[in-house]
């Protein structure tokens, strides 16, 4: 009797524990992906991730076809779909890898309960994280709220499980149920096709993920600690969307960074692992404090008086704030569905503090536009910048977008890549075009207020306004 292998955000054959368990059992597998309705609580799927999902499902289907199988696609409430497939195929078991977002957890618990009532074996496995979110706890048995002790526990807590190779020969059920057509899900943009440039950077699917990992270890890991903060340098792994869709497991990444110390400085490897650990920490927080997803973790922020000006929000989204590093970041996001981490911090600080717009609006925009949108990392990072999070940067740390630009994009190459109308400006004024002499702007073909906006706020005033709003909240608490 076959086993249904229910794929979710684990679109891979390598190091897939549920897949391995089916394989080891010797039973034939029915590989299934379900598009769950938004009302189930796990969605909505952002537009950029819809693009990714389309290509990732295609890639997974391709890998299964190499094994004389294919991926079955279905849409609807997961329990209903599973029950229908069980009836049709005579399957006696459903296996899956666990998800850790609050909606996913409750759907899965319900499904497990219902299937077991029908004497269907429902088994779930780990592997989306290095460790289960309850494995590392403080000495008092409580969850961690601060990253550094969490990291120490992770580092000293024993090696994660060894990744498992993809089975060489999968036994796929000879009679697979009919699949819906991927095209009918309409995941790709039509007109305009805003994703045209995505393929410059991305190859969704597990081969693409492994290639990114290989290239990163060969070309960029050496020096990572230093250079990772410079957005014009190709210095980070670009693994985030692959992790978000589970096309590669964190254990596989961890394992690949073992034994490199002859070629790469140990500090670089440790720093990279620390970033993977930030992802673990975000999930640890979300798992133990599910309200983090959409509520201020620190309730003091509930009374914060946001301005929420719609014109400002629009200027931010379109990369038209008049602050080049902010605009470059927002346009990189639009063009490639991704933004460099340093710049994410700068644009988030600008939205929250300079514009006094609720972090949740920024988080939602990122969710719609990032290919790596992740329920734990996105919410935890936005709250980190806002100062409302668990182990957060204090609110009064307000980035100066000009100085940040000058420090981390000293030649202005990042700005020139994404804000072409400033291309003619030299390094001295590229981050502060509003201070450039008129003759220089004329020579560079820039008419401020016409070809490129004047700053929508004065940073020094905005900073004072933000601090006043913060102090008012603090005094009221
Ligand atoms: P690398 O530097 O190569 O890091 C390797 C991996 O470590 C990443 O793929 C990611 O899984 C993890 N990682 C790195 N930095 C962080 C971090 N600060 N927090 C948590 N995990 C981290 N990351 C997401 O994956 N999804 C999001 O939706 C997301 N939203 C963010 C929103 C804001 C406001 C900020 C400031 C950061 C956000 N991040 C998010 C974290 C970080 O910016 C990205 O993970 C990183 O830029 C991805 O690029 P990379 O894979 O090349 O990173």
Automatic annotation (TrEMBL):
It comes from the Bacteria. It holds the Pfam family DNA_photolyase. Residues 1-130 form the Photolyase/cryptochrome alpha/beta domain. Coiled coil: none annotated. The keyword Flavoprotein applies. This is Deoxyribodipyrimidine photo-lyase. Belongs to the DNA photolyase family. Keywords: Chromophore, FAD, Flavoprotein. Its cofactor is (6R)-5,10-methylene-5,6,7,8-tetrahydrofolate; FAD. It comes from Rhizobium beringeri. The keyword Flavoprotein applies.
